[in-house]
């Protein structure tokens, strides 16, 4: 793959990651905005309920009771811990009425999720006439807050919405001048996350679908780019290769034609005879090249089979013996057939062509020891014809595309072996026409095994 294509793919992936990050950021921002909107709506609803006359009356019950407790404390009739205990006890009396008023008020504001409220006392401080601290019942820096109204939930799950101080001038008190009664109001949004997600469901679905679509589109584009580039390389290689193959017979024909038309060849019967024989051979060579391109380019559905039943072992032996004649002495072909009487239903011509292509490839790619085997698998009811060689082997990457049209095994982008890249493609089409399959097992520098599998 060229550097330009790699940069294009890398740029596309980086762009996709950037778009995904932006989309995720926008969804997160929308989520946070919805969260703040819910909190604001809840806060406004609480404020409306909190400012009603009913709630204010309940607070005054609480306050008046505390003032009575304070008077008893000043007269030494009860202790400070008893004042705090009575303050907490008043919660049980007032809180039921408060929760009823609060829940009815929240319901009127049409809040879709449940909002809990918690009111706590954090500081109770008594001042003297000089505004100096005279007595402390509750100090937020030392003591825990006292829950008085609402729902007693953890502050960790809550949002602080208000801090208030009830200041009361104690006119009838001899010891104290002013009372500072500090409170905090918290709210807790119950299951608000599910409501936010519900609101964002359509946005999330659309975002996910768009993300999947963009990934699919990018994947398709990159895959298509790689295929187109490989196809362009294959076509260029095929054109260069067929041009090279045609060059020799055409050059020879040109020379022989000049020889025939040369004045020195006039009346020379022997020269004319030899020249015509050369022209005839080169013409056949050209015709064979053209036939190879035309015939080997057809698909399996275009192959018209003439099926016959015959014994497979003698058939294979004849193919091997005929092919051996054309080989050099250093190339050895052996055979191993499990069942000599087994019959097969196939087209002799086409099946023979497929096997010869495998043998030719084994020799072409430096195979010197070739073994042809046959066995019949009773369990799967399949005929298996295998051609094993000790040649250069095929890489795992190339094994996936070895049966594609015009493909040829190359070394570092250089084709060292002649051919049009149609032999294995044609063999696979022949096997497919027999409703079978062709498989390859190979290791680089160790050799390959091609297996033709034809069902009974």
From TrEMBL:
The keyword Phosphoprotein applies. The chain crosses the membrane at residues 7-28, 200-220. Its EC number is 2.7.13.3. Keywords: Kinase, Membrane, Phosphoprotein, Transferase, Transmembrane, Transmembrane helix, Two-component regulatory system. InterPro entries: HATPase_C_sf, HATPase_dom, His_kinase_dom, HisK_dim/P_dom, HisK_dim/P_sf, Sensor_HK_Regulatory, Sig_transdc_His_kin-like_C. It catalyses: ATP + protein L-histidine = ADP + protein N-phospho-L-histidine. Residues 241-456 form the Histidine kinase domain. GO terms for molecular function: kinase activity. SUPFAM superfamilies: ATPase domain of HSP90 chaperone/DNA topoisomerase II/histidine kinase (SSF55874), Homodimeric domain of signal transducing histidine kinase (SSF47384). Pfam families: HATPase_c, HisKA. This is histidine kinase. It comes from Flavobacterium ponti.
């Amino acid at each position: 793959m060229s550097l330009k294509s790699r940069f294009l793919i890398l740029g596309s992936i980086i762009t996709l990651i950037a778009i995904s990050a932006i989309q995720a950021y926008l969804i997160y921002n929308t989520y946070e905005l919805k969260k703040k909107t819910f909190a604001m709506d809840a806060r406004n609803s609480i404020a409306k309920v909190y400012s009603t006359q009913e709630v204010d009356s309940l607070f005054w019950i609480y306050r008046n009771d505390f003032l009575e407790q304070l008077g008893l404390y000043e007269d030494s009739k009860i202790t400070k811990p008893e004042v705090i205990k009575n303050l907490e006890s008043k919660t049980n009396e007032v809180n039921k009425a408060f929760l009823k008023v609060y829940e009815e008020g929240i319901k009127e504001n049409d809040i879709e999720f449940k909002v809990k409220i918690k009111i706590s006392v954090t500081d109770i401080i008594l001042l003297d006439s000089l505004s100096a601290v005279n007595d402390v019942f509750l100090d937020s820096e030392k003591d825990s807050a006292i829950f008085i109204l609402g729902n007693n939930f953890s502050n960790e799950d809550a949002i602080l919405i208000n801090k208030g101080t009830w200041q009361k001038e104690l006119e009838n008190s001899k010891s104290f001048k002013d009372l500072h009664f500090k409170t905090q109001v918290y709210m807790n949004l119950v299951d608000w996350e599910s409501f936010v997600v519900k609101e964002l469901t359509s946005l999330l679905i659309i975002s996910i679908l768009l993300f999947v679509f963009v990934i699919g589109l990018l994947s398709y584009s990159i895959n298509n780019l790689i295929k187109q580039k490989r196809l362009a390389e294959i076509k260029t290689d095929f054109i260069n290769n067929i041009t090279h193959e045609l060059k020799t017979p055409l050059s020879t024909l040109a020379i022989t034609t000049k020889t025939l038309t040369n004045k020195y060849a006039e009346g020379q019967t022997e020269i004319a005879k030899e020249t015509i024989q050369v022209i005839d051979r080169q013409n056949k060579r050209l015709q064979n090249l053209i036939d190879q391109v035309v015939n080997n380019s057809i698909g399996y559905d275009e192959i018209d089979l003439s099926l016959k039943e015959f014994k497979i072992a003698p058939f294979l032996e004849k193919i091997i013996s005929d092919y051996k004649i054309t080989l050099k002495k250093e190339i050895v072909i052996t055979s191993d057939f499990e069942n000599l009487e087994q019959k097969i239903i196939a087209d002799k011509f086409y099946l023979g062509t497929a096997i010869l292509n495998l043998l030719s490839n084994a020799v072409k790619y430096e195979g010197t020891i070739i073994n042809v085997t046959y066995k019949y698998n009773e369990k799967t009811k399949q005929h298996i014809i295998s051609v094993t060689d000790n040649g250069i082997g095929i890489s795992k990457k190339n094994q996936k595309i070895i049966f594609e049209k015009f493909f040829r095994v190359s070394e570092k982008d250089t084709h060292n072996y002649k051919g049009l890249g149609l032999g294995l493609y044609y063999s696979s089409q022949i096997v497919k026409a027999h409703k079978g399959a062709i498989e390859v097992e190979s290791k680089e520098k160790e050799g390959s095994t091609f297996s033709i599998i034809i069902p009974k």
